[in-house]
Amino acid sequence: MSEAASPALTRRRFEPLWRLAGRRLALIPLLMLIVSLAMFVLLHLGRGDPALDYLRLSGIAPSEQAVATVRHQLGLDLPLWQQYGQWLWNALHLDFGTSYITGRPVLLELLNYLPATLWLVAVAFCVTVVFSVLLGVIAGSYPERLPDHLVRAVAFLGVSLPNFWLAFLMVLVFSIWLKWLPPMGYGGPSHFVLPAIAISVMTISINARLLRTSLVEVAGQRHVHYARLRGLSPSRRLRAHILPHALLPLLTASGMAIGELIGGAFVIENIFAWPGVGRFAVEAIHNRDFPVLMCFTLLMTLVYVLANLSVDLVHAWIDPRVRRRTQGPAPGGEHA
Amino acid sequence: MLALENIDHCYGDRRVLHDVSLSVARGERVALVGGSGEGKSTIARLALALERPSQGAFKLDGAPVGRRGRALKTFRRQVQGVFQDGPGAVNPGHTIGRIIEEPLVHLSRHSARARRARVEALLEVVKLPASYAAYLPHQLSGGQLQRVCLARALAIEPAYLVCDEATSGLDTVLQVELTRFLADTCDRTGMGLLFITHDLRLARRLCHRLIAIEQGRLVDDVIAGAAFTHPAARALEEAVLPLAPIKTAAHKTHRAPQHADTVV
Lengths: 336, 264
Description:
heterodimer, A: mainly alpha, MetI-like fold, globular, B: alpha/beta, 4-stranded antiparallel β-sheet, 39% helix, nucleotide-binding (chain B)
């Protein structure tokens, strides 16, 4: 409509999005504080002494004096609340300490590994979205017919296969037998294929079934049925009336999928020797590298929250009802 | 002429229509009356080619209605429908303007500018402000949405309109206003109307001809002023309470301050 192009309406359209984004961004510092406190307490509740690990990794004999010195150096001899306060003060200045393993600043180390992980997760996310929609639409367009049964069978197989086992299987078939793709390492596009598929297969299987159900449900609604009266072809009905509504549950699930993909990436990075934060974090867990684990947790929380915020903004942008919930009173009517 | 000839229709093993023959001429207003579950809505869906009859012929101006492609599109340009459930009949994610514009996009060759002008004109016709074009369905009342559906159905100026209980969910004043509007439109444009209802009073007020249906069979066909002859149809008539005089002007005066926008 003509109003859609007017600056006033454009402002009205995007205003709630900015408001939603602002509100959610404002909550991030509080969320990070809670996560950091919880993580700090959990790490210190665990067994073992980081000072001993530090000495072991440094190749120094763990004498009583050496342990005491290291504990003092690392601030581990202070009361827990003081340790946290010190860590928090430094963190506010973007100083997350140094890694016990490498002796380098933690933030720099993680930022060094993070791009590889984010690339992998981003590619896996794209693969997930494309194949979820494709398979979901195929299954939802032919409910209870052969394409639907085939997609459901594939999806069933997909959710049943653990990603690490699928990764080994794909390496065996595509790298060792067929020699089509590299078995491990980080480099060109071909290196992304196997890890991205291994991470995303389970999420694709779940999302395709979710979309299929959603499509069948929306396709049965009266307004879709009556759209035939206006001369809309089946494909136009799908694009204009079915998909925009059927995709909404998938969009919500995508927010959670990002978490699953990040989690999956940590396992898969170890199998494919992918130089991402996953491998680094796993090493840090084994060696009780507290500064790395603290920084890593906060970084992942931030990535997860921002990814979910993006999903919510896209949701609000696609579904005008969500947008208008934050607007003023409706012009009239009992539905208002 | 829109004609259903010797139609039998089944859902699985259940036969819901028996040898139904019904026709609506251009400019004619025909009411199909009957109780719930008698087959009225099935006839509406058949008359709108949303379903195909199990047996019998469905013709528009003497020619069988095409099943798909261009032939079906030609039929859609000529025959439109309005249903009882306004909120359910519109896409909740589309603006009112887009909803009304949709048949113009797919069934006509109007330019974007002409379509916008037509939407504004249609909103005015159904007594809704032009600004409502930017609003979403959940921001309007059921009565307002019903008028939006009517505006959408009339957008391409169809030759025939099928209204399936289109006024049932509305209050009495709005029912009278809508039926008056339909009568005016039919007289002005020569549009044929198949008005499906269980409200005999409205049917008599609006239509030239009344057809009664019982258990999937057309049992009576009389002109508006005449009484039904079939016992089942007469029973329908006897069930109607005496018609109270409708004080349209007084209602308008009464409603205007609270619902100025809903008065047609």
